[in-house]
Write a structure and sequence with these properties.
The protein has 843 residues and is of the alpha/beta class. The protein is 48% helix and 14% strand. Belongs to the glycogen phosphorylase family.
Length: 843
């Protein structure tokens, strides 16, 4: 690709000097897209931003200098984009998300600006290797997993599709913990990602908003004689914004990610200083700044923390105040135009307090009447649900909520009263339904049901895969669907092919460019063109060669991080995702142990060799998930060191799975494990990343697997397990795991090996809790799906033996993965929910 519009067309070479001070016109140094201009820019930043003499320069200094040079190149596009939508008064999407898992930025920005080759050359001229420089970058781990990464993919697509948009979130000082493995157990280490600085963000201390907290409300009569409510907070803090440019691929559009950081309000501190209470002021400062300190892990049993609610309210009020202030500045737009100019999407319920907060701002701060405020609110918000697990649906104990946000509780009561009146009118004499739908839950102490608040306050509600959206309508939001069927829709998730194909799989990118021509990167359904190469033996050989090289790369990484050696000719069978019982990493372990058992009891048995790779973090307080990690590493330690079996199998637990090392994982996989209990995984997005990179899937009919199988063709997908209906039926009858053990001697032997201490030096206490759980109270029906899974794995092995058959299936998977581009998903959001069109940016 050629660089996006060259801002300054000075002849290259003319002004470029290694010494930045002589680099010629500043414009060229800041904006030139040639290798020479970039070299000059890097040299310039080494002197003026990094301030290190040549004698002490290390790779990370070059990284920072290049990052700054690249950021410079986005800056004009960034300002032009924002100025354009302000001038043209275009409709803007705001994506509100407590998490943005952006991943390393440098490679992505080079790709999207079209200056990878130029940067490589520039660094080579400076005696540096681009790949080594790229490797210096850490990642902002500001998310738990799927939901946070989805937000990041969507920002990439919004910019690439030239849709005006802002991502709003929290600038956590500490992201998701770093996972280390010690004696096979997960150990959590703080992720202090800001210690090395963050070259991508620009802090805007002048762009800050006040955030109230606690206290009480008062009624008063305003100058016009109207009765109004005032919130008298107990505390006030403020949010300051840090903006990061989000450059679209091959376009000038450069959107914004705004992350809020909490600060103490100076006047409070000063006041305390004057009255001599300096230490109290410092204390307050510490407390205020705690708000954006740390990302909460999901699946924490103790997630009902006051601070988490404060985090949510904090970023929501800052974002809404920002939106309203821009709105009122923009050509003096009236508030009544809000839904015509803004679409605000709630990424799960985490920002759903926004419904009450917008009402508060419109009514208390901008003096609108209730009906108008409510109409604007509902027309502005959309809500995406990401889970059906009842225990994962967010609720806040009424006491905590009322103490923290007294005005919001009043507003929620009022919203609820009006809403339930509507329910009663539609469904007379159905008080049970009214109780089920109320925004206030009664079970286990009163609480605010955030999913209900989000649904009532949004004109559009969607799930994240076809099956999930259907189940939403028939289970957790059934009553709401019956009341407002027109609000409900589906947008199947997608992933960005820029990061998850072009950037992470350069070998495949090259082969695609050569075979089907460029263009696929922004129009992923063009991968269909690969189908005509399926029968070409030379092409299949090259396909395999790409995969083989990717596997060598991963094997090297595995060796350097775990000491385990993998043979890149083996099948790489991979499961990477958060560790959770519903995702059933332990089912994959049962298969591994079954193979181990077969090899040990049948000397002379030959099986196609496989490397089993796992990666993923367990929530620190989720003891069963942590024990599952121990189970993987224990089985691995035994298998990998046993000469009877390690000729045929190895087991790896890859520590600290994150976006950066994911770049090595997806392109190297032959088999993608998507084995959750049907009905539990809302969508999955890793499944899509594997498919795009040519892995075959073994999976249940869950989440987006259903659509993956539809697209790939049933013959190119290894299906197993109960369907969602069957899962429900088994549960209704009363699931008896023991009955599966009784009928299946191999399963009995596998469980006995695990519980008996074979993998734990004879200690039968370590893994027994996992096995007990499977046999006595497993809501995820692992044993019910065991036989079907293990038998399907035998077929996987048979198919693997025929290179050509496997390659054909692999090519077809990539060829048919076009639907799973986040570009398709974002187009659907724009067309069906947001009404946001493209706006091309001229420089
Ligand atoms: C909630 C309250 C308190 C603390 C933490 C949380 C919390 C944080 C993050 C709850 C959930 C999450 C993340 C959920 C998530 O990643 N869900 C996944 O979203 C993906 C994108 O839609 C889907 O593909 C996955 O199926 C879904 O599990």
């Amino acid at each position: 690709m050629t660089p996006v519009t060259d801002l300054v067309n000075a002849p290259s070479g003319q002004s470029a000097q290694v010494n930045g001070a002589q680099a010629g016109p500043t414009g060229q140094t800041r904006t030139g897209m040639t290798a020479d201009a970039l070299r000059a820019a890097v040299s310039d930043h080494l002197v003026y931003s990094i301030a290190r003499p040549p004698a002490v320069l290390r790779a990370e200094h070059y990284y920072r200098a290049l990052a700054l040079a690249v950021r410079d190149r986005m800056q004009k596009r960034w300002m032009a984009t924002t100025q354009d939508w302000l001038d043209l008064s275009a409709k803007v999407t705001c994506y509100l998300s407590a998490e943005f898992l952006m991943g390393p930025q440098l490679g992505n920005n080079l790709l999207n600006l079209g200056i990878e080759d130029a940067a490589r050359q520039a660094l080579a001229d400076l005696g540096q290797d681009l790949d080594e420089i790229l490797d210096c970058e850490g990642e902002p781990g500001l998310g738990n997993g799927g939901l946070g990464r989805l937000a990041a993919c969507y920002l990439d697509s919004l910019a690439t599709l030239e849709r005006p948009s802002i991502g709003y979130g929290i600038r956590y000082e500490f992201g998701i913990f770093k996972q280390e493995i010690a004696e096979g157990w997960q150990v959590e280490k703080t992720d202090n990602w800001l210690v090395h600085g963050n070259p991508w963000e620009i802090d805007k201390p002048d762009a800050s908003y006040l955030v109230n907290w606690g206290g009480h409300t008062e009624q008063y009569t305003d100058v016009t004689g109207k009765l109004r409510v005032r919130w008298v907070p107990q505390r006030v803090l403020k949010g300051v914004s840090y903006d990061t440019p989000v450059q679209g691929y091959g376009v000038n559009t450069c959107n914004t990610l705004t992350l809020w950081s909490a600060r103490a309000v100076e006047s409070f501190a000063l006041d305390a200083f004057n009255t001599g209470d300096f230490y109290k002021a410092v204390d307050e400062e510490v407390v205020s700044e705690t708000v954006s300190k740390v990302l909460y892990p999901n699946d924490e049993p103790e997630a009902g923390k006051r601070l988490r609610l404060l985090q949510q309210y904090f970023f929501v009020t800052c974002s809404l105040q920002d939106i309203l202030s821009i709105h009122l500045q923009r050509a003096q737009l009236p508030l009544s135009a809000l839904p015509d100019k803004w679409a605000i999407q709630l990424n799960d319920t985490h920002p759903s307090i926004a419904v009450a907060e917008l009402m508060r701002l419109l009514i208390d701060e901008h003096q609108l009447g209730w009906d108008e405020a409510w109409d604007l609110t509902v027309r502005t918000f959309g809500y995406t649900n990401h889970t059906l697990l009842p225990e994962a649906l967010e609720t806040w104990p009424l006491r905590i909520f009322g103490e923290a946000l007294p005005r919001h509780l009043e507003l929620i009561y009022e919203i609820n009263e009006r809403f339930l009146t509507e329910v009663r009118a539609r469904f007379p004499d159905d008080e049970e339904r009214v109780g089920r739908m109320s925004l206030i839950g009664e079970e286990g102490g009163k609480s605010v049901r955030m999913a209900h608040l989000a649904t009532v306050g949004s004109h559009a509600v969607n799930g994240v895969a076809a099956l999930h959206s259907e189940l939403l309508k028939s289970s957790v939001l059934k009553d709401f669907y019956e009341l407002w069927p027109e609000r409900f829709g589906n947008v199947t998730n997608g992933v960005t092919p820029r990061r998850f194909l072009a950037l992470s799989n350069p070998g495949l990118r090259g082969l695609l460019d050569e075979s089907i021509g460029p263009g696929w990167l922004t129009d992923l359904v063009r991968l269909r063109g690969l189908e005509s190469f399926v029968d070409d033996p030379a092409f299949r050989a090259r396909w395999r060669e790409v995969k083989r090289a990717n596997k060598s790369r991963l094997a090297e990484y595995v060796h350097s991080t775990t000491g385990i050696e993998l043979d890149p000719t083996w099948m790489f069978d991979v499961q990477v995702k958060r560790i959770h019982e519903y995702k059933r990493q332990h089912l994959m372990v049962l298969h591994i142990v079954a193979l181990y058992h077969r090899l040990k009891t049948n000397p002379g048995l030959v099986i196609p060799p496989r490397a089993f790779l796992f990666g993923g973090k367990a929530a620190p307080g989720y003891t069963m998930a942590k024990r599952i990690i121990k189970m993987i590493t224990a089985v691995g330690a035994t298998v990998n060191n046993d000469p009877d079996v390690n000729r045929y199998m190895k087991v790896v637990f890859l520590p600290n799975f994150n976006v950066k090392n994911a770049h090595l994982v997806y392109p190297a996989a032959n088999l993608s494990e998507q084995i959750s209990t049907a009905g539990k995984e809302a969508s999955g997005t890793g499944n899509m990343k594997f498919m795009i990179n040519g892995a075959l899937t073994i999976g249940t009919l869950d989440g987006a697997n259903v659509e993956i199988r539809q697209e790939a063709g049933a013959e190119n997908f290894f299906l197993f397990g109960l369907t969602e209906d069957q899962v429900e039926a088994v549960k209704a009858e009363g699931y008896r795991p023991q009955s599966f053990v009784e009928r299946d001697p191999e399963l009995a032997a596998v469980l006995e090996l695990l519980a008996g201490g074979t993998f734990t030096h004879g200690d039968s206490e370590v893994l027994r809790p996992v096995v007990d759980n499977l046999i006595h109270h497993d809501p995820f029906l692992v044993l019910a799906d065991y036989r079907s899974y293990v038998d399907r794995q035998a077929e996987v092995s048979r198919v693997w033996l025929d290179d050509d058959v496997w390659s054909r299936m692999s090519i077809r998977n990539t060829a048919r993965s076009g639907k799973f581009s986040s570009d398709r998903a974002i187009r659907e959001y724009c067309d069906e929910i947001w009404g946001v069109g493209p706006m091309s940016v001229d420089l």
